[in-house]
Amino acid sequence: FFSPQVLLLTCAEDLECVPGFQQKVFYIEKPFEFKEYQLVLNLKFDDCKGNNKLNFQVSNPDFMVDSDGSLVALKNISEVGRALFVHAQSEHAEDMAEIVIVGTNEKQGALKEILKLEGTSGIPRQKRAILATPILIPENQRPPFPRLVGKVIRSEVTEGAKFRLSGKGVDQDPKGIFRINEITGDVSVTRTLDREAIANYELEVEVTDLSGKTIDGPVRLDISVIDQNDNRPMFKEGPYIGHVMEGSATGTTVMRMTAFDADDASTDNALLRYNILKQTPTKPSPNMFYIDPEKGDIVTVVSPVLLDRETMESPKYELVIEAKDMGGLDVGLTGTATATILIDDKNDHPPEFTKKEFQATVKEGVTGVIVNLTVGDRDDPVTGAWRAVYTIINGNPGQSFEIHTNPQTNEGMLSVVKPLDYEISAFHTLLIKVENEDPLIPDIAYGPSSTATVQITVEDVNEGPVFHPNPMTVTKQENIPIGSVVLTVNATDPDTLQHQTIRYSVHKDPAGWLEINPTNGTIGTTAVLDRESPFVQDNVYTALFLAIDSGNPPATGTGTLHITLEDVNDNVPSLYPTLAKVCDDAKDLRVVILGASDKDLHPNTDPFKFELSKQSGPEKLWRINKLNSTHAQVTLLQNLKKANYNIPISVTDSGKPPLTNNTELKLQVCTCKKSKMDCSASDALHISLTLVLLSLLSLFCK
Q1: Which helix (H) or strand (E) holds 695?
Q2: Quick one: signal sequence residues (predicted)?
Q3: CATH number of this structure's domain 23-102, picked from the four choices 2.60.40.10, 2.60.40.60, 3.30.530.20, 3.40.190.10
Q4: What architecture (CATH level 2) is domain 574-678?
Q5: What does DSSP say about strands 214-226 and 135-138: parallel, antiparallel, or unpaired?
Q6: Helices (H), 68-181
Q7: Which of 277, 292, 613, 672 is most open to solvent, judged by the fewest CB atoms within 10 Å of its CB?
Q8: For residues 435 and 349, what is the distance between their CA atoms, to the nearest angstrom?
Q9: 557: exposed, middle or buried (Cβ count in 10 Å: 0-12, 13-18, 19+)
Q10: Exposure of 616 in the CB half-sphere (CA atoms within 13 A)
């Protein structure tokens, strides 16, 4: 090996004893292999007080340091990484040394970098008078502080010269971590360091005169915080839940567990190894799973036969996983997490009926669920491999039955959806199969237990008589004589095997027009049928009748009768309006337009004929003119005095024979001033042309 520190010690051979490694950095050429118990190099540690209770620790557990400082390999090893760190601690001091492992080509480059050599003549020339070698400081050092960690040497001695240290950790945040003795160049740390917070500090050293002017430098001083194994592995990505299908092949990967260690990833402090500490439950095997110690992959290690969800104590396994740093050595720190592994179900068990034949009884004429068919399925409940699908495969030609799955119990609910008739068939036999929503795995098939027979017995009930037809319709002319026969109804009893008698009665007759013979069902009239009655809707009168059998208890059937009534001319036309008013000085003598209406139907209504009764006196006072088939105009022939007049009018319909309505139109002649009509005195001046005519006739007769 070679050591640039030797040169530094030569320059400072007259300095007093400095506690710690007398040489802190070593460069060794990488051998093909480190041989077991072969000396690698000698380390010299001196706490300047006799090295009482001196102890060495090596970052790589494959190496050790004897009490005399000899570094040896504990076994043949070819790969150790780029560096080894040796920590020494005595009763009075502790320090860290670094052994850098380089190749042949790297050795000269490393030496040249540290000594800052340059030139091509092969004669080394010192570039700077300040020698600031890298300082290595273990993290988590305990008090007391400040603690000497290194030394900066200047080859030239200048009176009044002072060392000055600057950079992050000195005069920049975090401030005050490091300081330098202005005279001796001793570098001290003032507090405990945390590599996970800051791993490296890049400082600058310069030499100043008494006035503070820089006379040498600055030179870079690198301080590296040496990792200590002070962070436990942590599982940060939980919860950890994995799934594996039952019957999976041995070696099937279930999931990966990954832990994090905040220590230096290039050291064994963060070299993790995984292990299963506990498995719950422990059956059918206490070692159902294996975890790759380096990758953290959890795989199955039992045969597919043991990985049977239906035979397991529980389909859920919990594994306590341990991650240990230091490559899994006993000195490593540990962290644990729980991995939950669920054994997923596959459809490897067909559903089976709990019995081959089911019985059901149902009353005729009733619908609804009549029986629940039970099945067993060993697959995972509430999955498609467990949920049952039922099908009626025989015995349901009339589609009178349906079957559906109860989502809570998985039972088949067999229902009657079309009422059954005992007289047609008293027994039914259904063949039903059951399957799963999900298909079975290829090597499993549905067997005989996946079909069942249902025997259904229909119970006879006393059914009500049935009218034929229903509803019944008949057409009759209104006003037919009381006692006329409307219709003879026909009702039969569906219970043909019971030989029952039927009697009839009126159930609903809104107008009270009808009666029925209780024995033969003949319906007759008890009143005049009036098409214009409010009980008739759209020319149809509706009544309900009952047919009652002789069963115990008796059963009733209801029949509906619609009577369509034909119109006859039995209503005289009516006139509107019946009152009119006119001013005594009116210029427009058209008094009113009269209209006529008739409750009958065409042709017993319009066109109507409007006429005035004979007017008395020498002069005619009014006339009536037909406007159309339903209206006429009444007009005065001259202005009349203020009074009330009754105008006799007759209106005749077009029926055969026609009907005439003789009525009067009351005419009030009023005084009109300033757009106001005053008819108050008209009553006092009442004149009835009819009375005048009667008076004249009376005088004539005398």
Answers
A1: helix 689-701
A2: none
A3: 2.60.40.60
A4: Sandwich (2.60)
A5: parallel
A6: 104-115
A7: 277
A8: 11
A9: buried
A10: 14
